[in-house]
Predict the structure of Alpha-acetolactate decarboxylase.
Amino acid sequence: MGKFTTLYQHGTLALLVPGLLKGTLTMGNLLKHGDTGIGTGEGLDGELIILDGKPYQVDSNGNVNLVSDSFIMPFANIHYAQYSPLVELENVGQDELEKQIISLTHAANTFFSIKITGSFSNVKTRAVKKSVPPFHTLAETARNQSIFTRDQVEGTLISYYSPELFDGAAVAGFHNHFLADDHRFGGHLLDFHLDKGEVSYQLFDTFEQHLPVSNSEYMSHDFSRDNIANDIHNAEG
Amino acid sequence: MGKFTTLYQHGTLALLVPGLLKGTLTMGNLLKHGDTGIGTGEGLDGELIILDGKPYQVDSNGNVNLVSDSFIMPFANIHYAQYSPLVELENVGQDELEKQIISLTHAANTFFSIKITGSFSNVKTRAVKKSVPPFHTLAETARNQSIFTRDQVEGTLISYYSPELFDGAAVAGFHNHFLADDHRFGGHLLDFHLDKGEVSYQLFDTFEQHLPVSNSEYMSHDFSRDNIANDIHNAEG
């Protein structure tokens, strides 16, 4: 297993659907598997983006906080960054950008990460408000999300692409988080326009899926009654 | 990632469905990830079972062969064995046995392995006949399988259980291979009765999915047209 060709994932998107939102991994342990990533805290406590080994949380007030090693999470992705330049782009919307990336990488059947640094406009993000036990479902919790917008912002986008076959474990397609260079804006990206940016990418041949086997609520849950694909794409779209 | 809590998988069941049967990993490389496993060769060349680091192939003539480090595979599972005793059972059919295992382990939401050593009856196995390029689909190739039966046989069953969420990447539920103690019978288990045996199990918290990213046919294939779940359960059931 190559250090730079492995994407580590703790938890699954599917376990968020019925509200299995307990934090089952600490940030300190997550950071043993990489220096770049995304995730969410216990009870969907904000949106995480990890850059150069530093874990930032965008909370539901829109504040960007550094989180401690003891911060716990039900779901996160992380890897060791070794991006290669892919393309420089100007004036392109999200859908067109994602199409171009698939076309340039020919990598739709594996996992990869995209990093974009540059100038963005019409950026719309969300951050979910932390809920407390007994946790609600993903659909209910996502109704308590805050939406933030910025017309013009310099920043960094971190995206993970997952093949359709792994929808449910991950979000099939692109899962994009954002952090502004001024650390005053960020979150889970709902929409954006790239004015000008450097697009780099990193291909993975290994997807290391870690499951919260010590959590009895996870282990005893009956997933057959959850509408996983539908609820994920409504909440994460 | 714990040595004894990780299940390594090369390839996916889904890539077999449209006939992406090229060997993309050598046995020598697979054995760097464990000493116990199952798999198939290029072109679905027989059924593999790895015990104590020794890779056996049951070919379509029913012969059991040791394969070399250069043997190539499109799909395999492997792990480092550290089984714990689960239960001793007598006179139980496959369906009832699998129900008891789920009930005893409470592990339906993670990956685990089962090893059973003992006396089996009414054992039915299959081994697929190797096909050559251009490869046919899994459904077409599986029509060329040989079926073998034994009324009474002492042997070892190796099984991997995968959660429903990962159906398509793996076979959801149990995937059972068998090798007789006399090395004169084995293959992919289609049916069996356990007369008396020791059932042991090993829980995994990590599923390490390795994909054949250097294989251009895999990377360029359009999986959206394949009926993956249906064809897997017809061929692997």
Q: What stands out?
A: The mean pLDDT of chain B is 95. The longest strand of chain B covers residues 145-162. Chain B has six helices and 14 strands. Residues 6-236 of chain B form a domain with the 60s Ribosomal Protein L30; Chain: A; fold (CATH 3.30.1330.80).
